[in-house]
Amino acid sequence: MFPWLSTALIAVLAASAPAAAVEKPVPPSTVVREYLSAVQGGDFAKAYDLVTERLRDGLSRDNWAGRLEGQVADRGRAKILFMRVHPAIVKGDEATVVASFRLETPNGRKVAKETYNLLRENGRWRIDTIKIYEAPEQ
Questions:
Q1: Which of 8, 44, 76, 110 is at a distance of 20 to 30 A from 102, taking alpha carbons?
Q2: Which residue ranges form the domains of the chain, and what is each CATH number?
Q3: Nearest to residue 32, comparing CAs of 128, 135, 123?
Q4: What is the pTM of this model?
Q5: Could you tell me the pLDDT band of residue 74, with boundaries at 50, 70 and 90?
Q6: pLDDT reading at 108 higher than 90
Q7: Which of 36-45, 63-72, 102-111 is most confident?
Q8: What distance in Å separates the CA atoms of residue 48 and residue 19, rounded to the nearest whole number?
Q9: Helix (H, G, I), strand (E, B) or coil at 52
């Protein structure tokens, strides 16, 4: 028959096939929002997926989640009146995101700021360090 026809048909079908879905990287500020949401919701195992290997400190998911749960309990639960996750400052494979809070505690209101340093790990943004700054209660 026409051997070139089958080759041409394969080329046309391959060109019209949908490309494999490429996962769009999640921006650093979204990673921080997801982390905060997981911690606030008590889903410490989900928070584990959003941090670097270094921050996991060699712990299993369950052990790390248990440690984070203990740290949150030690700090006490404050009601978040307002929270803002600011846009990320990105430099190559590093990013910094600041989150601002207005909190209601048993002793009054206070403001807090948390700075998240993220690294791109295996193509995904992950939280590497967290610094917490709290103002005195008002």
A1: 44
A2: 24-134 (3.10.450.50)
A3: 128
A4: 0.78
A5: low
A6: no
A7: 36-45
A8: 31
A9: coil
Torsion of CA 31, 35, 36, 38, to 10 degrees: 140
Burial class (CB in 10 A: 0-12, 13-18, 19+), 135: exposed
Look at residue 46 and tell me whether its pLDDT is greater than 70. Answer: yes
CB 32 within 8 A of CB 20: no
DSSP character at residue 19: P
Which uninterrupted H or E stretch holds 36? Answer: helix 28-40
Which residue has 């299993």 as its token pair?
60
Distance from C-alpha of 85 to C-alpha of 79, rounded to nearest angstrom: 17
Q: Which of 100, 91, 99, 98 is nearest to 120 (CA)?
A: 91
Read off the pLDDT of residues 25-37 as tens digits, 9 standing for 90 and up: 799 999 999 999 9
